[in-house]
Amino acid sequence: xxxxxxxxxxxxxxxxxxxxxxxxxxxxxxxxxxxxxxxxxxxxxxxxxxxxxxxxxxxxxxxxxxxxxxxxxxxxxxxxxxxxxxxxxxxxxxxxxxxxxxxxxxxxxxxxxxxxxxxxxxxxxxxxxxxxxxxxxxxxxxxxxxxxxxxxxxxxxxxxxxxxxxxxxxxxxxxxxxxxxxxxxxxxxxxxxxxxxxxxxxxxxxxxxxxxxxxxxxxxxxxxxxxxxxxxxxxxxxxxxxxxxxxxxxxxxxxxxxxxxxxxxxxxxxxxxxxxxxxxxxxxxxxxxxxxxxxxxxxxxxxxxxxxxxxxxxxxxxxxxxxxxxxxxxxxxxxxxxxxxxxxxxxxxxxxxxxxxxxxxxxxxxxxxxxxxxxxxxxx
Length: 380
What we know:
- The model is unreliable at about 1-5 (pLDDT under 50).
- The protein has 3 domains: about 10-55 and about 150-245, Probable tRNA modification gtpase trme, domain 1 (Gyrase A, domain 2); about 60-135 and about 260-295, Alpha-Beta Plaits (2-Layer Sandwich); about 300-375, Beta Barrel (Elongation Factor Tu (Ef-tu), domain 3), CATH 2.40.30.110.
- By secondary structure, the protein is of the alpha+beta class.
- The protein is globular.
- The chain contains 9 helices and 20 strands.
- The protein has a 6-stranded mixed β-sheet with strand order 11-12-13-10-4-14, with helices on both faces.
- Helix content is about 20%, strand content about 30%.
- The longest helix has 12 residues, at about 215-225.
């Protein structure tokens, strides 16, 4: 299905999700499957076998031209011109004051060709900001192909076997050899696909970018290939609990215009030393780093392990000796670990692992402990 109103959008797989009995939720203006049955079963399938996700609400922006890398260096905080062809890099697009506009992944598909993948709710904003920042970079072309592109993900320990089953035999070894944060062009279920090996679940996984009209056929082929490997369709509820266990930030929760990369623990993404020249937000980010922002002052993002049974939720106050010292950004019970987990911004003086804090759970203080992120790390 296609967009029917200015506020409600549907992916090319919407009818399939409806036939599978999915419960839907609005996400960034898109009607997306929240779950198909049990979100707990979907979560556990990804940890033990494999899950199939529709991520077609994400954005895709092509950046091409002889100065494409130079342009992205100026527009984003990372050194994107240094990405090797066939590789990818996690980055941020920031405002002049250093606030985070979005976090995104950038793929280098050819010497003069990149693909920028922003979050669903920010796709139009990122496209507009990149267009503004293109001034002065003659020969650089931006093309927002989000509306024409579908994105299907296979995540879990059996993901590789499933993806190999839908590509020609002569490409199966290339799938196996594909490294983390890399991408190649393959044929999957008979259609051309950009295959990437990244993920947002803490497990091995692949993302397949393709034209909308080919998405239903590929989804069906992957489901068929995955039957013997325990693959099931998964919705956004499982995606959220999986990414939380993996300590991965979500824009709108852990990341926002009001937070700097340093406070969010993403200072390593900002190329203050490794790239020459100016980029948007550089002066503010340099000043924040020099001031110790997120390390010696203000608040910093931490992981919290629940010492009781009750889970913290977004926006719940974090307390120390009865006084508020922070706020939960994401929190819920961990299906894999068996105890509540959360991420929160708290005062820097209270961010050392082992620090005991409380969360105000609707009037009752529940004990938590600061721990290193991620909460869960898969066995290699």
